[in-house]
Amino acid sequence: MQIKYYGHSCFSVNVGEKVLLFDPFISPNELANNIDIMTLKVDYILISHAHFDHIADVVAIAKNCNATIVANWEIGAWAEAQGIEKVHRMNIGGFWEFDFGKLQMVKAVHSSSFPDGSYGGNPVGFVISGTDKTFYYSGDTALNLDMQLIPQRHNLDFAFLPIGNCYTMDVTDAVTASNFIKCNHIIGMHYDTFGYIKINHQDAINQFNIAGKILTLMNIEQTLEF
Ligand code: NI
Ligand code: MN
Q1: What is the pTM of this model?
Q2: How far is the CA of 217 from the centre of ligand 2 (A)?
Q3: What residues does 97 pair with on adjacent strands?
Q4: How many domains, the chain?
Q5: Could you tell me if 119 and 74 are in contact, meaning their C-beta atoms sit under 8 angstroms apart?
Q6: Closest ligand to Cα 25
Q7: Domain that holds residue 112
Q8: CATH of the domain at 126
Q9: How far away, in angstroms, is 149 Cα from ligand 2 center?
Q10: Half-sphere exposure of 37 (CA within 13 A, CB side)
Q11: Ligand 1 center–CA 131 separation, angstroms
Q12: What DSSP designation does 218 have?
């Protein structure tokens, strides 16, 4: 699987023949706004929750690529109201077999209102099994005991976890989360974008190393083969 980082919590992951994009927040992100979002070619956009820093570029990219949205019921309804034609609504706990592989929508502990304050449903994460690898994208979340349920159904090869503190887990809790989900390779997200979530990279990497794990902090526009 090839992973590309677009800043904040936005990654694309090539799963089989399809390109999945998570939580696009590129054009308003000072660290990533040199990227022309119209150059992205994606098949699916997965949305973890309705906060602005996760949906900002959804409509533009979805319409440009004729991509399918995968999100909770309420965000799915919002996407349809924006004129996006292909929307697959799910809810927490459900599995669905897509043409790229199997996806389970899982719980996140956070909130999920749209920028205008309207209800965005519950925040979610995703566990995705392609032909060769399985990974977890947690979305914005606190550490929570329900993460221990994930390895009962899934053997994770890698996981995307927030590490920026203030709005989500900090690094120390993310290490515990990696134990809960039984995963040794974590890709950090939701850090450095705003003042409140700036982190010390070396300290974060060290905390994971002490636990016998690898934390990867990707540069924006960097790609990684997994
Ligand atoms: Ni959020
Ligand atoms: Mn966020």
Answers
A1: 0.98
A2: 17
A3: 102
A4: 1
A5: yes
A6: 2
A7: 2-225
A8: 3.60.15.10
A9: 23
A10: 23
A11: 30
A12: P
Strand extents, DSSP E, the chain: 2-5, 11-15, 18-22, 44-46, 68-72, 87-90, 95-97, 102-107, 124-129, 134-137, 158-162, 185-189, 214-216, 223-225
Cα(192) to ligand 2 centroid in Å equals 12
Interval between CA 190 and ligand 2 midpoint (Å): 7
Q: How do residues 36-84 score in pLDDT, each as one tens digit?
A: 999 999 999 999 999 999 999 999 999 999 999 999 999 999 999 999 9
Contact 166, 173 (CB under 8 A): no
* Ligand that lies nearest to the alpha carbon of residue 114, given by its number in the listed order: 1
Strand (E) or helix (H) holding 64: helix 58-65
Q: Let me know how long the chain is.
A: 226
What are the residues whose beta carbons fall under 8 Å from the beta carbon of 51, sequence distance 6 or more? 111, 112, 113, 115, 120, 140
